[in-house]
Amino acid sequence: MRVAGIGFQRGASAASLRAALVSVGPVDRVATAAPKAGELAAAIGREIEGVDVTGVATPTQSQASFAAHATGSVAEAAALVAAGQGARLIQARKIIGGVTIAVAEGDEG
């Protein structure tokens, strides 16, 4: 199962959010930090899994992400958590139009 994790600032445009998602190709699920799941779902018209990203170790580090969510990358953390135990990143975070996106692969479904 492929899961896209998305990190974004409040008010990010729907077009930027959709462009970031399209940039990673097909995914089975989309996840973000729980407090932002509703906003993301409304913006892109897709079911979003809101997950707890607090304390999740990530290979890349953003000071802003760590200050706001206690993880180095909301996108990477959300993808890893939603993909389940033993998940691995297959695409580290990248920034598309101000939206951060990463992809993890796991066995949960």
Automatic annotation (TrEMBL):
* Species whose genome carries this gene: Thioclava marina
One Pfam family, please name it: CbiG_C
Entry's InterPro entries? Answer: CobE/GbiG_C, CobE/GbiG_C_sf
Extract the Gene3D superfamilies matched here. CobE/GbiG C-terminal domain
Q: What is this protein called?
A: CobE/GbiG C-terminal domain-containing protein
> The CobE/GbiG C-terminal domain covers which part of the protein?
3-104
